[in-house]
Amino acid sequence: QDYHQKMSKSRSGILSAFGDLMSRFQTVDEEYFEELEDILIMADVGVTTVTELTDELRREVQRSGVSDPRALNEVIVNKLYDIYNESISGSRELNMQHGQPTVILMIGVNGAGKTTTIGKLAEQFKSQGKKVLLAAGDTFRAGAIDQLAVWAQRANVDIVLGTEGGDPSAVMFDAMQKAKNGNYDVVLCDTAGRLQNKTNLMNELAKIRRIIDREYPGAPHETLLVVDATTGQNGLSQARAFTEVAPISGVVLTKLDGTAKGGIVLAIGKELGIPVKYIGLGEKITDLEPFRIENYLYGLFA
Ligand code: GDP
Fold it and tell me: Does residue 254 have its Cβ closer than 6 Å to ligand 1?
C-alpha cells in the first residue's frame, strides 16, 4: 500500500493512460497497439521491450481471439514479467556471505543518490542485527566524505574516512583491515563516480577491486550501480557506460517516487541484463526497498 503510494506518480500516469485506452477501444486493433506502444515508450519502458511485448500480444490476440482490451491487461503484466526475467542474468538477491564480511562496492555518478543509498542500506543491515562498516572511498568529490559520515551517524554504524584528494585504494585497504579485526558482517564501499574520465575510473575501480580481493578472495561480492530513475534514457546510457568500466552485479534505481516514467526498470533489465536489486522511494533513511518485479508490475499496471 505504502509502496503504491510512493510510486503514485508513475502509477497514476500509466494507469490513467491505460484507463483512457480501454475506454476508447472496444476491440484491440492495430491502432490500439500503436497507442499502447506510445504509452509504454513514454513511460521509459524502452523500445526493445515494448516491441517484443506488442509483437507477442498481437500473436496472442490472433491465437486466442481475445479482443477486449480489458482482458489484455493481465496478459501485458505477465508478458512484461517474462520479458524481464528472461533478460536478466545473475541472482536477484544480494550475494550475502556467512563467516566473512559481505563487501559491497557502490558506484554511480554524482547526484544519482549513491550516498543516500549507502545510508539506507546501512540502516537496513543494522536493523537486521548486522555489524556494518562504511568505507568513504569517494575522495574526489568535495564534501563526499563528510556527507557519508553524516549517514554513518544517522544509521549508527562505523566508518573509515578517507582524505579528500587521497588514494581511494588506501581507504579500502584500511577498511578491509578494520573489517577483519572487528568482525564486521557488511562493508559498504563508496567510490567516486567520475564517468567523464572513463579510463581513470576504470583503473581506479580495478585497483580498488584488487585490494579488496587480496584481503577477501572473491570480494567484492556485489558491485551495485546507482541510477537516478528520473534521468530516463540518459540514466540508461550512463548505466551502459558503467558496464564498460566494471562488472556490475545489480542496479539500485533511485528516485522512483519522483518520476512518472517508472518503466525504466524494465529498460535496464532488458538492455543491460542486470537485475535491479533495490529501488529508492524517497529521501528518508527507510525509503529503500528490495526490488520485486511482480510487486512492481502490479503496482504500475493493475
Ligand atoms: P550522490 O551524489 O550520488 O551521493 O547523491 P546523494 O545521495 O547526495 O543524493 C542526491 C539527491 O537525491 C539528494 O537530495 C537525495 O536526498 C536525493 N535522493 C536520493 N535518493 C532518493 C530517492 O530515492 N528519492 C528521492 N525523492 N530523492 C532521493
Answer: yes
